[in-house]
Amino acid sequence: MSKIVNHNYSQRTEPASGFKTLEEFYPFYLGEHCNQINRRLHITGTTLSQIIIAYALIRQKYKWIIGAVVQGYAWAWVGHFIFEKK
Known about the structure:
By secondary structure, the protein is mainly alpha-helical. The protein has a domain of about 40 residues. Helix content is about 65%, strand content about 0%. The protein has three helices and no strands. The longest helix has 24 residues. InterPro entries: Mpo1-like (IPR009305). This is DUF962 domain-containing protein.
């Protein structure tokens, strides 16, 4: 079994003017998503959201889009609150 490593890339905060390039943003992103389980939960939620949205559009069940967004965020919230402790 592989060991889960939590990296502390930095304690960077978002600049008041926002991020202007991916090179500025990416270290901040890595710092907010150090935990491997958190990143996997994000991927799961995003993938399921895309599948549900595609289904909703094909079947014209537009209310499902709301559920797709909510469930997508739920996976991310679990990852941040439980595994990242943020």
